[in-house]
């Protein structure tokens, strides 16, 4: 490995660490009633957003479901603006009107988190159609959980994307549970969810979603193919969320055992990349200690910014209801 590889690996680690510490702090702020409503954490799944988005160009599109903080941060959004949005503040990405599940950063081509399960897949197909129609050299990356695969709109999106050979990459973050329902009780082809896409003629591949390098390597290849006009691609990224479905759901006890969660935590994506760096003698423990301090300061600054920002004025209630 070269010095460029070292910088690259630490960049990936930094992004995952930022997401991890941001999410942990978000949970803390939720417990303090600084954040209200729903809050779905991305802890454990960081390698997918970071690895996949690393393969995109800044002008490519990315779109996600409701567990969207990680994708937004991986796309380069300001942590302070993201935290302010979670706080419902006027300085947030969406001026406090979107909240946790509806983050949007259009200048960075992150076109939103969406609360309706599977509801954004047709939008991703639409973005891909628009770029192809306008002969733009762009791809769209669409992130969603395996719980979206059985939805009718997902199948409509798959069919149209395949029919028109649209430049869209469907990235299924298979964390094995749709809320509290195991995948085998929700999807007929649960042993190979990617087969659902193949039935529409979409090329598909499974990847270890806990290994950021594996995700990025596959995405690099897929992005090149899709950008080159070979049509859509479906990636099934095998992952595991270390926390509950949302803040109202315990990490274990109802549908997962503590032993299962502890066993999956042994494959922490941050630990996997850290060991790769250490094993290849591209870093030492002190590098990670310094990075922890840096990220800690970034997250605390984000909280301070959000906490000190004003709530939207009551007069803003009717703004942004309709397109202006």
Task: Describe the 3D structure.
This protein is of the alpha/beta class and 324 residues long. The protein has one domain (3-311): Thiamin diphosphate (ThDP)-binding fold, Pyr/PP domains (Rossmann fold, 3-Layer(aba) Sandwich). 43% of the residues lie in helices and 11% in strands. The chain is built from eleven helices and eight strands. The chain has helices at residues 3-31, 46-53, 69-74, 79-86, 121-133, 152-163, 194-198, 212-227, 258-265, 269-279, 285-308; strands at residues 61-64, 110-113, 140-145, 168-174, 177-178, 181-182, 203-208, 233-238. The strands form two sheets. It has a six-stranded parallel sheet, with helices on both faces. Helix 1 (3-31) crosses helix 2 (46-53) and helix 4 (79-86) crosses helix 11 (285-308). The longest helix has 29 residues, at 3-31. The termini are far apart. The relative contact order is 0.17. The mean pLDDT is 95.
């Amino acid at each position: 490995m070269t010095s460029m590889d070292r910088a690259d690996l630490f960049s990936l680690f930094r992004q995952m660490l930022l997401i991890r510490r941001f999410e942990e702090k978000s949970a803390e702020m939720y417990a303090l009633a600084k954040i209200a409503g729903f809050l779905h954490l991305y802890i454990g799944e960081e390698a997918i957003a970071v690895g996949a988005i690393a393969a995109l160009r800044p002008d490519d599109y990315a779109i996600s479901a409701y567990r969207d903080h990680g994708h937004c941060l991986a796309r380069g959004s300001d942590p302070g603006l993201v935290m302010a949005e979670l706080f419902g503040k006027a300085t947030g990405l969406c001026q406090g009107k979107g909240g946790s599940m509806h983050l949007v950063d259009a200048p960075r081509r992150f076109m939103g988190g969406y609360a309706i399960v599977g509801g954004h897949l047709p939008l991703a197909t639409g973005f891909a159609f628009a770029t192809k129609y306008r002969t733009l050299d762009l791809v769209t990356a669409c992130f969603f959980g395996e719980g979206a695969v059985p939805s009718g709109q997902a199948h409509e999106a798959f069919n149209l994307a395949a029919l028109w050979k649209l430049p869209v990459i469907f990235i299924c973050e298979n964390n094995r549970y749709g809320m509290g329902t195991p995948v085998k009780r929700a999807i007929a082809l649960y042993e190979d969810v990617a087969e659902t896409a193949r039935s529409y003629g979409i090329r598909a591949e499974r990847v270890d979603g806990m290994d950021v390098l594996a995700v990025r390597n596959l995405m690099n290849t897929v992005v090149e193919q899709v950008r080159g006009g070979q049509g859509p691609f479906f990636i099934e990224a095998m992952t595991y969320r270390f926390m509950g479905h949302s803040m109202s759901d315990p990490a274990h006890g109802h549908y997962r055992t503590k032993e299962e969660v502890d066993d999956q935590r042994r494959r922490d994506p941050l630990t996997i990349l850290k060991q790769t760096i250490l094993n290849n003698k591209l870093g030492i423990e002190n590098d990670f200690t310094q990075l922890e301090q840096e990220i800690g300061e970034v997250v605390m600054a984000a909280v301070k910014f959000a906490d000190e920002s004003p709530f939207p004025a009551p007069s803003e209630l009717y703004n942004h209801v309709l397109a202006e």
